[in-house]
Structures are given as C-alpha cells and as structure tokens.
Sequence to fold (240 residues):
Amino acid sequence: MRYRYLLFDLDHTLLDFHATARSAFFRTMQAFQVDVQHAHWQYYQRLNAQYWKAFEQGRIDVITLRIGRWRDLFAHMREWRNPREVNHYYLEQVSQSAIAIDGASSLLHQLHRKKQRMAIITNGLSQVQRPRLARSGFQAYFDFALISDEVGYLKPQTAFFDQAFRQITQQLGHQPQPEEVLVIGDSLEADIKGGNDYGCHTCWFNPKGLTAPPDLQPHYEISHLREVLMLTSPHTQTKP
Ligand SMILES: [Mg+2]
Fold:
C-alpha cells in the first residue's frame, strides 16, 4: 500500500450527518409537540454550527453546546420545552441513524480487500458516534475509532493526533512516519489543518467544490470517495 495507514473522518465523509440530523430534528420536535417549519430547521443548523465552533475553539464546554442550541431555538420560537430533555431525545434519535455517503461502502470494502489498515478519527459525542458506527456496518473495516469526547481533545489539536499515533503504533507494532499516514476528511479546519500540522498527508473530500484558502491547502482534493483508491494505490505516480 502507498500509505501505511488511513485516518478517516466520519461525519460528512463516510456518514451523511446532515440527513441524520435533519430527520432526528423533525422527529424530536414532533415528539415534544413543537410545530416547526423548514425555516426553524435552518435556524437550528445555524445555532448548532455556532455552538460547535465555540466548543471546538474551547470557548464553551460540552454541556453548554448540548443545552444552548435548544434553549436559543425555543427562545427564538417563543416556545418553552426543557432543553435537557429535548437534547437527550434528539441524541437518541441521531445515535440510531447511520446513512452512508455515496461510495463509502464500496470504497471501504475495496480498501479492506487490499488489506489497507485504517481507523476513524471523529469530533463528536461518544454516546452518539459509537452506536452510529456500529449501525453503519463499517466498524469491521477499522482497527479503532478515536472519538474526541473520549480522548478529551479535538481535531485539529496535536494531542488528539498524538493519541491517534499511539494507537496506530500499537496496531502496527511500530511507529509510522507522519507522511506514511493519510488523513481523509471534509473539514478544512479539523481534518486538513490537523493532518497538515502533524506532518501527515491530507485528502480533502470536497463534493461541493469549495475553495480552500491559500494557508490551508490539502495534499489532495477529491469530489467523490472512489478517488481515494487512486491515491492509495502504490502505482499512482501523482506526487503530493
Ligand atoms: Mg466531517
């Protein structure tokens, strides 16, 4: 194999978190008898993104993230529901849903057949990500899954990647060079920055054709997951 190890992001890379979150949102609102329109879903997504950004930058803790997004949504709607209970129900809905990104299943199957060693690195909550990974049917392809909530650090922090490399070293029986590890993910701030900073090679999954800023350039950019096969083939001549 061209790379000794592949580190895959989970959400928006292998699993369609948007589809999962959307159906969980509407099921939760229905369960709590809140009458919501599409605009409320959009409003919630903006709130959630703001809270996640603040959490990833270390400005708020995980409890504030979990509760604040619902409290703010209901304040906006002039409704009152217990945000703690709503969040609990919502996370349960999310944890029961694993919808694969197009091409993920076939890619992982083919990489596995080639005996490519792989792991998951994800920023997320343990109680949500563990059941989703189990439900996805992908778990058997990976040596391990590293979840920020369990590690106590997030991508792109160095400490998160230190832990990933400790586990890779355990799996392989020796420590690989950073450039022998390819990080694949959709987030420039978490996956590409994290991988680049650590000295890994990075592959940006960019199906929407966005533009990366000059100071945050991945080694590779792909629009479909099948392209990972080309990058990891030992015969590929492309220089990163
Ligand atoms: Mg992602």
Observations:
- The pocket of magnesium ion is lined by residues 9, 11-13, 185-187 (CB under 6 Å).
- The chain has a mean pLDDT of 95.
